[in-house]
C-alpha cells in the first residue's frame, strides 16, 4: 500500500519535499531567466515557460489516498495532458479519464492497461468508439438514447456508466448544462439499455469543475443511489459509482469528508468507487514565467498620476486561456526586475490586488497579453512596489489546470511552451527514474 511503501510521508505534509519545493522552483526559474538576454537572444528564447514540480502532483496523490481511501482516482487527462504528469500518475497506479481517441492513445502508449481507462464522454465520435473497442477500453459513459444506439452498433459489450445531472450551480465551470440525464429520464434510458442487451455497470456524475458546495456531492450521491436501485429493478446489477471531478485543493479535506460519509451512508463497501479528479492534481504544480515585452505609460492629466500597461509574451489566447474558459484570475508576481531576482520574496507577498487606499508608494499596472485583441488582458489592475520595465519577468502560480491544454497559436505566437521539470519529492523522483 502507499502508506507502507512511503512510510511517514502521509503524515508529514503529505510528503517530505514541501519545505524545499519553493527553493528548487526558484532555482529553476533563475537558471532559465538568467540565461536570456532580451537584447541579443534568438527568437523564442525569451518565450514564456513553465516550471512544474512533479513532487506537488505526488503529494496531492498521497493526500487523496489519505482522505478518500475508498475512491480510486482516474486522472482527467484533459485538464493537463503533460507527458511527465501522466507518466508519474501511471507509475503511481491511478486510472485515467479520457475524452477522446488521442487521450486514450496517449495513456495506452505508456503501457497502462485498458481497464484503468474510462472513456468519460457521454457524446462520443463514432470512430473514437471504434478505436476504444479495438483497444479493449470498455468503460464509457452515456446520458442519452442516441448514444445507446451508437454503442449497440459499435461496441455492444462496452461497460456503460449512466451519467446523471447534478446541481452544479456553485461550481466554476458548469458541466451539467451540457451533460447528464435527469432522474426523470434515467428509468427510460436504463430500460432501453436493457432492451438493446447492453451492459450498464455503473452511474457517473460530475458536480462541476471547481466545485465549492459540498452539499452538491451529498445530493449527487443520493441521486446515484436512486439510480442504482432503479437499475436493480430493471435487472441490472450495478457495481461501480464514478463520482467525477470538481475537487479543489483549498477545500479538499472538507469536500472529502462530506463525500466519504455520503458514500458510506449510501453505498456498501462492495460497490467500487472511482473519481475523475483533474484540477486537484495539477493546478498548484505548474508555475509560469512571462517576459515583459513592451510597456506603455499612461498619464492622467487631471489626477496627475502615472500608471503603466505591461505587455507580456503570453495571454488569454495562450496559457492564460484559463481566464476565459476556466474563470480564473491569475495573480502577477515579480520574478526578475532589472538584476534583482524576486521569486517568493517580500515584494511579492502583498500589493498584488489593486487597493487604491494603499496605492501610495507603489506603481499601478494593467497586464496584457501579446495579441492584437483588446480582450487579451491578464489583470486589469495590479500594483507592485517595483518599477517594472521591458525585459523584466513576471511569474504566476497555480497554472497547471486548463491552461496549456487550451492555448492557441493566435497571432502567430507559439502554443508549445517549454516546461522545466523539478521534483521536490524523492518518492516521485524514484518512480520517474524507472
Ligand atoms: N470528468 C469529466 C467528465 C470532466 O468533464 C471533467 C472536467 O471537465 C473532469 C472529470 C475533471 O474535472 P476537475 O478538473 O474539476 O476535477
TrEMBL record:
The active site is at 372 (proton donor). The modification N6-(pyridoxal phosphate)lysine is found at residue 78. Residues 54-283 form the Orn/DAP/Arg decarboxylase 2 N-terminal domain. The keyword Cytoplasm applies. CDD domains: PLPDE_III_ODC. GO terms for biological process: putrescine biosynthetic process from arginine, via ornithine. Its EC number is 4.1.1.17. GO terms for cellular component: cytoplasm. Belongs to the Orn/Lys/Arg decarboxylase class-II family. This is Ornithine decarboxylase.
